[in-house]
Amino acid sequence: MNLIYGMKQELLEAAIQIAEMGGQHTLKYFKKDIEIINKADDSPVTVADRETEQILRNEISKRYPDHGILGEEFGQTNEGSSIQWVLDPIDGTKSFIHGVPFYTTLIGILVDNTPIVGIIYAPALDELCAAAIGMGATLNGEPCFVRNTEHLKDATLLATEIYRFEDEVRQEAFEALLDKTKIHRTWGDAYGHMMVATGRADVMYDPILNIWDAAALLPVVQEAGGIFCDEKGKETIHTGNGISTNKALFPAIKNIFKNT
Ligand code: 2AM
Ligand code: CA
To answer: With a 6 A CB cut-off, is 189 part of the ligand 1 pocket?
Structure first.
């Protein structure tokens, strides 16, 4: 299915509006004393995650009843549709429950499994990145770009946390990444990828990514002039891990992960 330009523009604008509605709702609970529930995978979830996803889903279904929706908290509807909205109401729930504003509301739109629109909205920071493939990326409406750091020795590396891998090869690759880069910071999540897409960091590494964590990232990073890829260097959201960087650093990053 080939989306005509007008349709892509419409979906981009709708996704921005819907992400804003959802993200604004999270603020009702941010820095408030709310119950934290541990999910089956031991990750935390709150009423804010659940209510926000419902708001996103209701608005999408109202506007596009035939489109599919896949959300982290409430699963899949209209699975057969060629247009799928992929939602993470709060990416960075661990930040959210610590009162750290680096959490985001994510919307990705896939057409025939290919991401074409991405929204990363950090409501507590009032920062919204939006992109549609072929149409550029914006931060709060202004064009945004990756920065052009050329060497890993000058690069700022972000990650969601400090990792310990059971797999030795992956552990070695992560340590090489740490050794070869200059500045290291965590509290990453999708906000870390947004930092790369807006020229504030050079590499963001996520060894664990579900499709709802990744779908919004690829269009934003690519359209900002960067690369969003997996550890094999493949530009995909479907393999469970993700790295954002610029085109100059990409070969060196690929080399670090070549044996994983
Ligand atoms: P969440 O806050 O929506 O749960 C990228 O690291 C994202 O993957 C995180 O923002 C988090 O999303 C999720 N994540 C992080 N660590 C994870 C883990 N150990 N298992 C499953 N998901 C994880
Ligand atoms: Ca989430």
So the answer is: yes
Tell me the mean pLDDT in the region 155-160. 97
Class of domain 5-143: alpha beta
Tell me the torsion sign for CA atoms 31, 34, 38, 39: negative
The owner of tokens 């964590």 is 213
Indicate if ligand 1 lies below 6 Å from the C-beta of 160. yes
Average pLDDT, the chain: 96
204 in Cβ contact with 243 (< 8 Å) = yes
Is residue 148 over pLDDT 90?
A: yes
- pLDDT tens string 93-125: 999 999 999 999 999 999 999 999 999 999 999
In short, whether 108's Cβ falls inside 6 Å of ligand 1 is no
Atom number, ligand 1, closest to the C-alpha of residue 209: 8
- For residue 91 and ligand 1, the question of a CB distance below 6 A is answered with yes
Q: Which CATH class is domain 152-258?
A: alpha beta
Contacts of 119 (CB under 8 A, 6+ apart): 15, 16, 19, 105, 106, 107, 108, 128, 129, 130, 216, 220
**Whole-number pLDDT of residue 25:** 98
User: H or E element: which one contains 16?
Assistant: helix 5-27
Of residues 26, 17, 250, the one with CA closest to residue 117: 17
Do 118 and 107 contact (CB within 8 A), yes or no?
yes
- Cα(45) to centroid of ligand 2, in Å? 8
Nearest-CA residue for atom 19 of ligand 1: 208
Q: What is the pTM for the complete model shown?
A: 0.97
Structural domain boundaries of the chain? Answer: 5-143, 152-258
Q: Alpha-carbon distance 255 to 260, whole Å?
A: 10
Q: Side chain identity at 252, as an amino acid letter? A: A
